[in-house]
Design a protein that fits this description.
The protein is mostly helical. It has five helices and no strands. Helix 1 runs antiparallel to helix 4 and helix 2 packs antiparallel against helix 3. The longest helix is centred in the middle third of the chain and has 37 residues.
């Protein structure tokens, strides 16, 4: 479930499924929408389209699972090497495979986006380009999303 309170997507405090923002009670902070909810709202997806998008992104999320784990390990290793002051040659040996993983992750995201694009009506397609960045956030680890952490690729 990439949409809200359940499994693979945003968990840990975001609550609710797609489009579940209700009125906030006084004194309570309103719930922040997940990237998938923002994507769906921005394109004004109907219920059937939301279900199709959910299926497409769930499959892509599953496909990207091994990459996400290696991607995060690579990021930690690179940061550690920089902190330790390793040489440029040593860093390059770490950065090249990391860049390849980033390329593979982007390819999965683009393939999923193309499938989503095919489900959209022409008026929705005209807005889809600006919504693409939100899909990349859907692929991030749930812990980072819940914590409001940084974005992959924006260092």
């Amino acid at each position: 479930d990439l949409g809200g309170g359940g499994g693979g997507g945003r968990s840990g405090g975001s609550g609710g499924g797609m489009g579940s923002e209700g009125p906030s009670m006084s004194g309570m902070r309103p719930q922040r929408q997940t990237p998938l909810e923002q994507f769906s709202d921005r394109l004004k997806l109907n219920k059937e389209q939301r279900e199709q998008v959910q299926t497409i992104l769930s499959a892509a999320f599953e496909e990207s699972a091994p990459l996400r784990s290696d991607f995060d390990k690579g990021r930690v290793a690179i940061a550690g090497a920089m902190i330790e002051g390793r040489s440029a040659d040593e860093l390059k040996k770490m950065l090249d495979p990391y860049a390849e993983m980033a390329s593979q992750m982007t390819a999965i995201e683009v393939k999923a986006f193309a499938k989503v694009w095919a489900t959209l009506k022409p008026n929705q397609q005209s807005k889809a380009g600006q919504a693409f960045e939100l899909l990349a956030e859907v692929f991030e680890r749930p812990q980072r999303q819940a914590g409001g952490g940084g974005r992959r690729g924006k260092q």
